[in-house]
Every structure is written in C-alpha cells, then in structure tokens.
From TrEMBL:
Catalytic function, reaction form: cytidine(34) in tRNA(Ile2) + L-lysine + ATP = lysidine(34) in tRNA(Ile2) + AMP + diphosphate + H(+)
Homology family: Belongs to the tRNA(Ile)-lysidine synthase family.
Taxonomy, superkingdom: Bacteria
Gene: tilS
One GO BP: tRNA modification
Designated name of the protein: tRNA(Ile)-lysidine synthase
Species, as recorded: Actinocrinis puniceicyclus
Function: Ligates lysine onto the cytidine present at position 34 of the AUA codon-specific tRNA(Ile) that contains the anticodon CAU, in an ATP-dependent manner. Cytidine is converted to lysidine, thus changing the amino acid specificity of the tRNA from methionine to isoleucine.
Notes concerning its domains: The N-terminal region contains the highly conserved SGGXDS motif, predicted to be a P-loop motif involved in ATP binding.
InterPro entries: Rossmann-like_a/b/a_fold, TilS/TtcA_N, tRNA_Ile_lys_synt, tRNA_Ile_lys_synt_N, tRNA_Ile_lys_synt_subst-bd
Database matches in HAMAP family: tRNA_Ile_lys_synt (MF_01161)
Lineage summary: Bacteria, Bacillati, Actinomycetota, Actinomycetes, Catenulisporales
C-alpha cells in the first residue's frame, strides 16, 4: 500500500467509526505503543479535531515486564506531543484466572472502563487489525469453540458501543507503514514473539505455514469467515433473546417443555442468557457448561444440580430449570444476590 496511502486509509477508517459522534464528544485511544495502536492514535489525533471532537488516550501498564512503567511514560509523552489530551497511564494488577493472556485482558478492560466512565468518553478505540482477527478465529478453531468464538472480534461492543475497532478490516502491515510515514517508532512487545503464548505461536508459526501451504489471502479469508459467522450469530442471538421471554416459567426459571421445542442453537443461547443473568461470568462460561445444562432439558434422567462458574447452580424440578447460587454454607439458594430470581433480570 505504501506509507502515505496507509495513513490515509487509517484516517478514513477512524472517520467512519466516529461519524455518529457529536461535536465536543471525547474519544479515547487505547494505546500500548505498538504499531497498530500507535498508528491508530496518530490518525485519531488528526481526524477528531476536524470533526469537532476531543481526542485523548490511555496506556495500560500491566507490570508484567521490567521497565513497563518507563515504557508507559514514554508512550504518554509521545501521544501528548502528537496533540492528544487527556493522556493517562494506568497501572493494573494482573490476576491468574483464565491464564495470563485472559487475566491481562480482564485487567486491561477494567482499567479502560474506569477511565472511560471517569472522563465521560463517548468511545474507546482499539487497534486490532485483520491479522488479529485471523489469529482469533484460529484460536477458536484450536479450542473447538462454537460460532460465537469463530465469529471473532466484533467491530463494536460494550455499553453504548463504547469499544470500537476501526482497523479490523486493515492488514497489520498497513499500521507499520503508517507509523513510518508519521515518523513514530513503535514499541515491540517481546510477549508478541514469545512462543510460550498461544497467539504468538499462531502469529509466527501457524499463519506463515498456512500462507505457504494455501497461498496468500488467508488472513482476509479468515476475517471474512468471521464476519459472516458474526452476522449469523447476531441473528440467532436476537431469536434467543425473544425466546427467553417465551420460555419463562410461571414459578420462575425456564420452562423445559418450551425449551425442548426450540432448535438446539437457539435453546443453548437461551440457556446461556439465563446463566449470564444469574451471575455466571461470560469469560469463564464455556460451551461444556451450556451443553451440560442443555442435557437437563434433552436428556433428563433425574441427574442432580449442576455447578456453573460464578458460582451458579442449575437444577431441574417440576418441569422447569431453576438458576440460583451456591451459598457459603454449601446450600443451593434459588435467588440471586439481589434477592430476585435471575431469569427476571435483563439478559446480557
């Protein structure tokens, strides 16, 4: 594409992403200092003022490497020099749940959520590219995931579509070229080349092997597949949200007879919505959990209650699935922490 066209392409993508904003709105860029987010920040710093918008940035220091605080300070100085304001560095403590990559992601989004709410930002821009999308699809395949995972990363998500990915249709090489044209030097995260991380092995080993075996264009094909699956998944999700209302039991929970009459894909989505509404964390609620609850509907043999992440307890009784929580004394409660039955809550 070349350096100058690359800058123009990224600026156009940012403009299209922000076209629903109003003058005076604040846009934040989540910037690690890598090529993708740095090119995005430079483009946003150029585009936002011309649209009457304010543009700031947040860099998250995960504290996982020596000198990470110094690196974060350097990113802050660079972005301020490019005219972004406010620009903040936020240090987070990364836990262990779900593995290092998932734990770092959880800590990062918690920090970004807090900054967005405190600064009253309309949106937070993320620098994920088409190559990242292809890697995500391959990760889903490796894990044996369903359509939701294979659909990859959405272009927008979060409350009010807070999080947006303008570069999801752009190749990673475009951001490298844009940084060169902008005169900025991106930071090279050593974790991205560490074979201890699954995504790194996919990036440096698997994708090149696929490219050699099947020819060029695989990232585009994988991203296109993800986009089509996402359209299908969104349609099924809408169906499930409507079916959830129809499946409510008069005594609380879900009516097993009505559930049994739904197609499998819709029924399991209804179960997932009910589990999420009961307090099961989306990040740890896996397909195996949903399939186990589904068996209470389709393969009922009098089996006992199931324990989901959260901790959420599901049991079948009197033609209904009841979702509750496991209390500290070991007894299974039939209400959520709020005291309301979880299926009365708005699904997420």
């Amino acid at each position: 594409m070349g350096p100058v066209p690359a800058v123009a392409a990224i600026r156009l993508a940012v403009r299209q992403t922000l076209k629903d904003h109003q003058p005076g709105d604040l846009v934040l860029v989540a910037c690690s200092g890598g090529a993708d987010s740095l090119a995005l920040a430079c483009a946003a710093a150029f585009v936002a003022p011309r649209m009457g918008l304010r543009c700031g940035a947040v860099t998250v220091d995960h504290g996982l490497q020596d000198g990470s605080g110094r690196r974060a300070d350097e990113v802050v100085r660079l972005l301020r020099q490019r005219g972004l304001a406010p620009v903040e560095s936020v240090a987070v403590v990364v836990g262990r749940e779900g593995g290092p990559e998932a734990a770092a992601r959880t800590a990062r989004y918690q920090a970004l959520d807090h900054c967005a709410e405190r600064l009253d930002a309309k949106s937070v821009l993320l620098g994920h590219t088409r190559d990242d999308q292809a890697e995500t699809v391959l990760l889903g395949l490796a894990r044996g995931s369903g359509a939701r995972s294979l659909a990859g990363m959405p272009a927008r998500f979060g409350p009010g579509d807070r999080y947006r990915r303008p570069l999801l249709e752009k190749a990673r090489s475009v951001t490298e070229e844009a940084c060169m044209a902008e005169g900025v030097v991106p930071w090279r995260d050593p974790h991205n080349a560490d074979p201890a991380y699954t995504r790194s092995r996919i990036r440096h080993w698997l994708l090149p092997a696929i490219h050699e075996a099947l020819g060029p264009g695989m990232p585009e094909a994988l991203a296109r597949t993800a986009r089509m699956l996402r359209e299908d998944t969104e349609a099924l999700d809408q169906w499930a949200a409507s079916a959830l209302e129809d499946c409510r039991h008069a005594q609380g929970g879900l009516d097993t007879a009505r559930l049994a009459g739904l197609p499998t894909a819709v029924r399991r989505r209804v179960i997932r919505l009910a589990a999420l509404g009961s307090g099961a964390p989306a990040g740890t609620l896996a397909a195996v959990h949903i399939e186990a609850v589904d068996a209470l509907v389709t393969n009922w043999r009098g089996q006992g209650p199931l324990h989901l992440p959260g901790p959420v307890v599901v049991h079948r009784a009197d033609g209904r699935l009841a979702f509750g929580e496991r209390t500290l004394d070991g007894l299974d409660a039939v209400t959520t922490r709020s005291g309301q039955h979880p299926c009365a809550a708005t699904p997420v």
